[in-house]
Amino acid sequence: MQLMENAWQRFIEHTTLRRGVVLAALMLFLWSIRAVMTEVLLTFIFTYLIVHWLRLIQRKVPWLPTIVTALVTYAVLIILVYLGVTKYLPMLINQVVKMVDYLIKYSQSTDMQWLTKNLSHYISMKEITAQVRNWLTVGINTITTVGNFTVSFVMAIILSFFYAIELEQMNHFSRQFLQSKVAGWLFKDLNFFGQKFVNTFGVVLEAQFFIALTNTVITAVCLIVMQMPQVLALSVMVFGLSLVPVAGVIISLVPLCMVGYNTGGMRYIIYLLIMIAVIHAIEAYVLNPKFMASRTELPIFYTFVVLLVGEHFFGVWGLLVGVPIFTFFLDILGIKPVKPVQEVAK
Hints:
By secondary structure, the chain is mostly helical. Helix content is about 85%, strand content about 0%. Helix 3 (about 35-60) packs across helix 6, helix 8 packs antiparallel against helix 9 and helix 8 packs antiparallel against helix 11 (about 265-290). The N and C termini lie far apart (about 55 Å). The relative contact order is 0.09.
């Protein structure tokens, strides 16, 4: 008995080993609840953004109660969501339908006959039919996923709302776990990993969000100048894909070029290629040094590997949070430490 107590005490005092075990247990726990990972990640993202917004308002207007700021913020958010769903979503769906129609007409045009003729020598009609069936299955699954995502989105908004209106009480109550005489060490380790993850996730995700927003604005302006059709749908697509580091902009180039060719021929494709090259230059030499102030950017090879592995294990979420999670592990292992968000802001 004494030997077990001594071993347990040595384990508690060995910080590196103890934190390694806690991290492994935490990863196992998250893997076991992967079915609700969408709700977890959405709740974390909304809570992170709202808490930062509340802290900003507190610094600017210290006399304003936090609960009032939270209530006003969520009221405005609900109004914006309502306007987006009732006014802009039908417009977006209409433009997406038109964009798909553009792509279908382009694929059936004389310009694509040579490609269809050459492909027919290598791909049988049976294989094409099988691929069409797979695409239909993917489409049905996507519709189901959109419904589930809507439910998860609403739940995440509600949970983040309850967290925000009781922000100070939540912080006070959570600190009591650190004083536990039985498992205080466990909660301190969880707090350590939590702070590391919030700092890493915050720095990387905020930077990628602002980069995606800037890329989308520049792209939208260029598309309007070029008089491209369905600018709203293309802009939303560019923004969503730009949240995926490196690969997103390259993937968005394919539908952009197809719509551009159907609108203005090869001349528009050249314009789009120049536009993407300029955006990449701005991102590399202006946006990354400004937003990635903590120097967490990765080599392109590592980025693609992380995206592939993240997509394999976590699906679409892996493309969005794969890089922040990988950066978190680099920080934990001391390979590439990440500065706290406060230091980056300074």
